[in-house]
Amino acid sequence: MPEETEKKTDIKREVISWVIYLAVIVALTFFIVTYVGQRTRVSGQSMENTLHDGDNLIVDKISYRFRDPKRYEIIVFPYQYEKNTYYIKRIIGLPGETVQVKDGYVYIDGEKLDEHYGKEVMNSAGIAENPIKLGEDEYFVLGDNRNHSSDSRDPSVGVLHRKDLIGRAWVRIWPLDSIGVIQHE
After folding, report:
1. Short-list 36, 82, 43, CA closest to 59
2. pLDDT the model gives residue 34
3. Which end of the chain is more exposed for a tag (fewer CB within 10 A), N or C?
4. Does the active-site annotation cover 124?
């Protein structure tokens, strides 16, 4: 009899250890996805030539807890009119600045922005045709493929608030021939 009791005790210990192990894995996964990083997939051509349709990225969700977002960083944010839809764009205007699009180019506080990544001159200024003064926690974002991007020029996107920024694009993990840290400028 003692041998049988010992086997039952061993089985119970083994089951308990597996349950604890799985609980720790689930808790760590939740922590990482919620606070550290998450995978996202680029859908569409709005960030070409920097990012392409089908690229898989890891989004750094922790940096902005310790520092402010910077100009030219590529960020991810939720689209307010469609659940589980996220946009990926480049930060152009920072809090307190005045942004305007004139003759297809971006002007920050009246000075033409020196950009090297945009695919082409913008055909439409959208709501940025008139100067937009950004508030204390507001950001103006654009896609790199300016004529094929819904971004801050579009009223359905508009300016973003700091709380809207999920994180910044950090590493491309797919396709394999393009794996690497994403260049933000």
Report:
1. 36
2. 65
3. N
4. no
| SS3 at position 168 | strand
CB 73 within 8 A of CB 168: yes
150 and 157 in contact (C-beta within 8 Å)?
yes
Q: How far is residue 83's CA from residue 101's CA, in Å, rounded to a whole number?
A: 30
| Rounded Cα–Cα distance for residues 78 and 141 (Å) | 13
Q: Active site includes 156?
A: no
d(CA 90, CA 143): 6
Mean pLDDT of 30-49: 79
Is 101:121 a contact under the CB 8 Å cutoff? no
| HEC letters along 28-69 | HHHHHHHHHEEEEECCCCCCCCCCCCCCEEEEECCHHHCCCC
Q: For residues 25 and 160, which has the higher predicted lDDT (pLDDT)? A: 160
The rounded percent of the chain whose pLDDT value lies above 90 is: 51
63-166 in CATH: which number? 2.10.109.10
Q: Per residue in 115-169, pLDDT tens?
A: 877 668 899 999 999 999 999 999 999 999 999 999 999 999 999 999 999 999 9
In the set 46, 61, 149, 152, the catalytic residue is: 46
Residue 183 main-chain phi, psi, to 5 deg: -85, 125
